[in-house]
Predict the 3D structure of the following.
Amino acid sequence: MLQVVTANRLVEGDVVYLTEGGQWSERLGDACRADDKQKADALMETAEQAVAAQLVVAPYAIDVTTENGTVRALQYREQIRASGPTIRTDLGKQAAQG
Amino acid sequence: MYRYDEFDQTIVDQRVSQFRDQVARRLSGELSEDEFKPLRLMNGLYLQLHAYMLRVAIPYGTLSSRQMRRLADVARRYDKDYGHFTTRQNIQYNWPELKDVPDILLDLAEVEMHAFQTSGNCIRNVTADQFAGAAADEIEDPRIYGEIIRQWSTLHPEFSFLPRKFKIAITGSPNDRAAVKVHDIGLRMLLNDDGEPGFEVMAGGGQGRTPMIAKTVRAFLPKEHLLSYLEAILRVYNMYGRRDNMYKARIKILVHEIGIEEFSAKVEEEWAHMKGTSVDLPEEEEHRIRAHFAPPLLEVLPMYSPEFEDRKREDAAFARWARVNLFPHKTPGHAIVNLSLKPEGGVPGDATAEQMEAVADLSDQYSQGEIRVTHEQNLVLPHVKQADLYALWQSLESLGLATPNVGLVTDIISCPGMDYCSLATARSIPVAQRITERFDDIARVHDVGDLKIKISGCINACGHHHVGHIGILGVDKKGEEFYQVTLGGDASENAAIGKIVGPAFSYDDVVDAVETIVNTYVETREDGERFLDTYARLGLEPFKEKLYGTR
Amino acid sequence: MALVKDGQAVQDPWINVADNVELPSSGPIIVSLARWQTDRDALSSRADPVGIRLASHEAASDIASGLNRISLVALEFPTFRDGRAYSTARLLRERYGFTGELRAVGNVLYDQLMFMHRCGFDAFEIASDEAVESWQKAMSEFSAWYQPATDRRTPVTALRHLRRAAE
C-alpha cells in the first residue's frame, strides 16, 4: 500500500498534501508517502496537529500509486481533486501547471 | 418585488457582523471546526472538492437588476468570474476563500441579499414558480407567501437545529412549476368553494436515497393561518423526526413511518393551540408585503404585436426561439422570456460575470428591471413587450443565452457532480455536455419535443433525477463511473418518481443509451404524444428491449 | 463551568441526584424523569424544591401534570445539534404555563444562547471561563427578530404595526 494525507487550507480552502517536513503543499508530487499503516497513522497525527493549529481542515488519507516516479491518486475522485474540474481545465491546479 | 425596510436590513447587517465574528473565532481557534461547521453551513458555506463553496440565497428565485450586477461583482472580485444557478433557485460560487466570505456577505447585504440558511439543518430557501406574477394561470402571486415564509423562518429560534434540512416550495398555479410534491412541505394555492384563498398543505415529499411524493396533510388551509400551520408541522418534525440516522432524518421518513393520518392528527392537535396566536401574520402586514408584489405597470397593448409576427415570418431562427423559449404573459402584448443557460457543450446553469451583467442591463431595458432564476437552472425575463422580442433575442444570441431549447432534450438539469462536489460518486456535467453534442441538430431537438433530462452525480439527487422524464444517476462500480437510467419521472402536479430501466451504463455508453431511448420514443409515438405520454401508454418494455435486447 | 441566570453568574444551589442514590433529606434537588415517575410521592411531598432533568427524547407532556410541584426543569442538549429541547422549552412555558427556572444543560454553546433565551430558557450552564461576558455578547448580537417566540422581545411584525400606528 501507499498513502498520502490530504486536507484543505482553513483560510483559503485550497487542497493541500502533507509533505515530509510537515508542511502543506498544493502539489500531490510533494506529498510524503506512507508505505505502511504505522507511517500513515503518524502522518494523520501530524495532520491533526495542523488542524488544532488552525492551518488545515478535514484531513484524510488517500491511496496513491507511483508510475515512472510520478505519484498518482488511485481513486478518480482524488485525481480530480489533485488537478481540477475536468470540464474546466482553465481552473484549479491544472491551470497553474499549464 | 420585496424591498427591505429598516428591520430587514438590520437583521441582515447584524447577521454579517455575527458571521464575521464567528470566522474570527474560528481562525483564532476559539471555535473548533466541529463547532464552526454548522455555523458556516447556516450561512451557506460548504467545503467542497477543490475549495470552499458559497451558496447565496435568491428568495423564490427573484432578482433585481441591481442584485444581479452585484452577483457578477462578487464573481469577479472574490471568485473566478462565474457562478452556478442551482435546482433550488440559488447561486453558487465555487472558489471563495473563508477569510473573504464576511466581505462577500457585506457586499450582498448592501443589495438586500444574503446566504442565510442555504445549508444546515434548518429551513432553507423557499422556492416558487419562476413565472410568478406574470403567468396567466396563477390564482395569486405565490412570492407574497414566499416572502412571508422567508421572514418567519429566518433565525427561527425553535427550528434552527432540526433533524435535517427542510425545504419548502409553493405554487400559485394549478400547473405546478415549482415541484411542490417533492418537497418537505409543498404548498399549492387554491380557492375553496366559497372563493376564499388558501393552501393545500402537503408534506413528506423529497428525493435523495428514498424518493417520495408528498402527501396531503390538509386539503384547505385558510391563508391567514399559514404561519401557525407551518409552525405546527415544524414542531412535530422537530420533536419526532429521527435523529439516530442522518439518512432517515427527513420529514418524509417520519410521515412514511407513522403514516399520514397519524402525522396529520399530530399536526392538527398542535395547530389547535397555535391557530390565531401572534405567529399568524396580521392582515395589515400581509397587505404591506403584498403591495411589494403589485404587478408592474405595463403598457396597454393589443394582444398580438405586428412587429413580432412579421419578424417571425422573416427570420426562421427567431421563430424557432420564439416557439420554444417564450411563455404566455397575463398582460396582452407581452411575453415571459426564458434565457437558456444550456448552450451546446456548456456547463448547465453556469453564467459568466459578463453574462450576468448583460442580463441585468437587458432586464432594465426590456423587463422592468426584474429577473428570475428557475429550478431548472435557467433565467427568466418576466415582463417583455412582444414588440421588443426581436431586439432582445439578437442581444441574447450574441451573449450565448438564446439557445432555443427550453424544456427540450438539451435543456438538461445537472448537479455539479464529481467535478466539484465532495459528496459525488460520478461526474454529471460531462454527461450533460455530451448529450447536447449528440443532439446538436436543432431541428431534431424540436422534433423530439418536450423532454426533461435530469442528472445527479450521487444518490443525494441534487440534480432531481428522480423526477426527470429521463433521469440519470451517477454511481461508482468498482472505481468506474456508471449511470443508472430511470424513465417516467415528473415534477409537475402529476408528480411521479422515475422507474429504473435496467442495469447501469458505463460513462462511454450512457449517451448512446439516452439516444436509444429518445429514438424509441420518436419511433413509437402517436399523434401529438410527448415523451411522457408515450411512456405512459407503453411502459418500460419497449425501451428496455431497445436498450438491452431480448434476453 | 458557570451557571448564568438573569445575566449574572450565580452559585448553583441545586444538587443533581443520581437515580440509584438515596434522596437527601433536605435541599433543592434535581432528579431524572425516571426517578420522578418512580418516587413521585416522596418527591411531591418534599418540603424543599424539586427539579427535573429531561433528556432530549423526553417530552414536556411527560411532566405537564406535575408542574405545580416542580420548581426547576433542566433540559439536556446532548450535542448542540439536537434541537428538541427548543420545542420542549416552548411547550413548558407556553403550553403548560411553567414559570420556574428553565435551565439549559449539556452542550450549551455561545452561538445557541440567543435561540435558547428566545425559547424560554432563563438559566444556562456555560462551559466558558468568561460565561457572563459570553452571555452578554450573545444577547447583543441582534436587535431585531422576525418571529414571535416565548420571550418578551417585540418581533418585527409588532414593531411594524407600532410604526404604522404612529404615522
In short: Chains A and C do not touch (no CB pair under 8 Å). DSSP finds three helices and five strands in chain A. The two ends of chain A are 30 Å apart (CA to CA).
